[in-house]
Amino acid sequence: MTPPDNTQAGKQIWIDVLTVISCFAVVILHTNKIFWERPQGRLWVTANIIETVFYYAVPVFFMISGYTLMDYRQRYNSKTFLQKRFRRTVIPFIAWSLFGLWLYSYKNAIPLETGWRDIVSSTLTHRYVGIYWFFIPLFAIYLSLPVISLIPQDKRQKVFAYSIACAFISYAVLPTAAKLLMLDYDKAIQAPFVGGYLLYTLLGYYLGHYDISRRIRIALYLSGIAGLCLHFFGTLYLSPPDGIDHTFKEYLNFPCVLYSAAIFVYCRYSHYHWLEKNPVAIRLLHLAKTAALGVYLLHIYFVWYVPQWLGLPEQSIVFRVGGAVGIFLACVAISHIFRRIPILCALIP
Q1: How is the chain split into domains, by residue range?
Q2: Residue 32: CB partners within 8 Å, gap ≥ 6?
Q3: Are 92 and 343 contacting, i.e. CB atoms less than 8 angstroms apart?
Q4: Nearest to 306 by CA among 284, 321, 294
């Protein structure tokens, strides 16, 4: 069975939907930051639910990058590709990291770092805006694509399937299995050619471009549900009263990989007739999708200040869920304002 023709004016709706829901997931993960303070009672349960359900955010974004960028050679050469990535991600990353450095110093009343070594180090290590860690592996993926994309189209399905299997076993299964079985192993056995987050890049291309049979999809959905449950209940019951147990957490752990892959495939094979028939909904989807980078760059500053501005406790469900919706919409609006203003448009392309 081939996937439904989820296109509108040449644009694939399912990728736009994935982009928007993964972007919103990032926001709600951060408004739910009380999770990392290991609260007690019902608050611990609700925080864990939100954390687990929306944990697909970053993995799915890496998968989208693999799906949309792997074939860049069909549009332009590698030099143009890297220039575009530099303008679209590196410049905003540097600019907003510097802004974050200043705002963090102001917010916490600490001296502003002015030495160039301190500034460079704090930027590269996302010391003051921790959520910008995501850009570093993203840059590594961009630098890898000119090599990976050289694999011929007629060989990619088998080569990528083998690479995904190696990455999944090496980085998603082996570390957790060794921990559960209390075994030591030499990490040099992990396949180096698919290190980092390349697993998600290859997985996004594979699951987005090749037909996935109904039987495999059902198996993947069940595996995704199992991964979600293992992540939730494992974290819920294994975590000590004063900390978070990471046995079934981490983005490269197999519960997250299975869950994220299931989300990706489900969106690809879903039907969006209701959306296609509604021009207003399509327009709103496009507005949210094109503002995704801006939302990621901006939302953390609202997360820092909105509870203070509105007098909302950070642990309240109103802030953790309702605040996430409001911050998401505000960042979409601000992103489009920036995109219309010369010079500022370079900060949120």
Answers
A1: 7-71+149-346
A2: 47, 50, 51, 54, 320, 324
A3: no
A4: 321
* For helices 41-53 and 13-31, angle between their N-to-C axes, nearest 10 degrees: 150
Reference 70, options 265, 162, 207, 193; nearest CA is 207
Indicate the length of the chain as a whole number: 349
Number of Cβ atoms within 10 Å of the Cβ of 240? 8
Nearest to 276 by CA among 9, 1, 39, 35: 9
The DSSP result for 40-87, as a single string, is: -HHHHHHHHHHHHHTTTHHHHHHHHHHHHHTTGGGTS-HHHHHHHHII
Question: 132 and 126 in contact (C-beta within 8 Å)?
Answer: yes
The residue with tokens 């963090």 is 104
Give 32's Cβ-side CA count (13 Å radius): 24
pLDDT tens-place string over residues 153-211: 999 999 999 999 999 999 999 999 999 999 999 999 999 999 999 999 999 999 999 99
